[in-house]
Design goal:
Pfam families: PG_binding_1. The protein is an all-alpha fold. The protein contains three helices and no strands. It has a domain at about 40-95. It starts with about 35 loop residues before the first helix and ends with a helix.
Length: about 100
């Protein structure tokens, strides 16, 4: 009897690191929880520039979402739902 052998899980890939000295994204597209990549890294870098302690890994997870909500509340950016809208992008870039 041919019993299939278990397949080993794929090896984890190294996480991408992002340097906040680089501008990763200049647009204003909706950016939401679950997103990944340079656009998310830009949100995270901008949050850091505003004093928020957030990991800059390009992954829009629970921590980034919570920090976006906190930022939106502190600046009066509405809605305060953790979605990075064009209004939130503008506020994040307003220094």
């Amino acid at each position: 009897m041919n019993v299939p052998k278990p397949v080993a899980p794929a090896a984890a890939t190294a996480a991408t690191t992002y340097d906040c000295g680089t501008i990763w994204y200049t647009g204003s597209a909706l950016t939401v929880r679950g997103g990944t990549g340079e656009r998310v890294a830009e949100v995270q870098c901008l949050l850091k520039l505003h004093g928020y302690r957030v990991k800059v890994d390009g992954v829009f997870g629970a921590d980034t979402h919570a920090k976006v909500v906190d930022y939106q509340r502190s600046t009066g950016t509405t809605p305060c739902d953790g979605v990075v809208t064009p209004a939130t992008w503008a506020a994040l870039r307003d220094f």
